[in-house]
Amino acid sequence: MGKGGSDENMAAWLLGVNTLKIQPFNLPALGPHDVRVRMKAVGICGSDVHYLKTMRCADFVVKEPMVIGHECAGIIEEVGGEVKTLVPGDRVALEPGISCWRCNLCKEGRYNLCPEMKFFATPPVHGSLANQVVHPADLCFKLPDDISLEEGAMCEPLSVGVHACRRANVGPETNILVLGAGPIGLVTLLAARAFGAPRIVIVDVDDYRLSVAKKLGADDIVKVSINIQDVATDIENIQKAMGGGIDVSFDCAGFNKTMSTALGATRPGGKVCLVGMGHHEMTVPLTPAAAREVDVIGIFRYKNTWPLCLEFLRSEKLYSSEENFKARGFVSRLQGIM
């Protein structure tokens, strides 16, 4: 039986390629610093889809049945004896990664790179697409009254954009190019706007995704080709749309063509941040970029982002207009292209 209720705890288990089944999910014992959360909103990430279609994502391989899901928010049902900051009934957004806090990377504050990280729905760790989960209280962030549970779950993908902007030092004097108008490209657009970027151009091969990007506040959009031979033409069109130097390019797709475009479009002395991981390996023109002192940086997940994400969500900084802020429609728009 499920803890704290008469219903058995159920979850969505990935059993094989394109095979999901709802079946019982036994919860671990509640530790003194843990909370038990009833899930109310769980997003489906690109990694979940990769696992569903191929049983792997990058170097992570599903070798035995696994519960999926890691973008989540819910309501506290029970707290451990040492938990002082949360009580039953609190609405919370969950940060999905549990690091060791003992290794040098954790001690340096870069816990997102912890080699012992236990991350929801990353083999062999089970995820959160379940009735209930048990999670450390310090990774559960109380939602303000004006933030919905759905928005709370969106803190996870938004954290990717926030972490990328921090890594690239985005600010009020940073002109931004975003390559890829999928969900991660769009949250990177939103984060860059919240960090004060004065001009943001976003590119994609899909008209609908570009239209969503425009509604979410992109200053300009550029439809690009899928052919690597068209990189030079695409760069010319992108730079024309920007109307000035591109200080930071975010490659939110991670393909040979998108990275080549980013490296070529970015001004001398600028930065290219690799966010997407479409290709495990890429062949790109690094030498010309190095000759222009274009810095290449990468990101992996995020660290210390939930408080800032919640502050952005409750302010107007993520929104292109007061009308969009009042409508709070970015969640539904992101869901519409996932």
Automatic annotation (TrEMBL):
Pfam families for this protein: ADH_N, ADH_zinc_N
Keyword Zinc: yes
Keywords of the record: Metal-binding, Oxidoreductase, Zinc
Family listed: Belongs to the zinc-containing alcohol dehydrogenase family.
Cofactors (names): Zn(2+)
Protein name: Sorbitol dehydrogenase isoform X2
Native source organism of the sequence: Solanum pennellii
Signal peptide span: none
Record's keyword annotation contains Oxidoreductase: yes
Domain Enoyl reductase (ER): start-end pairs: 16-318
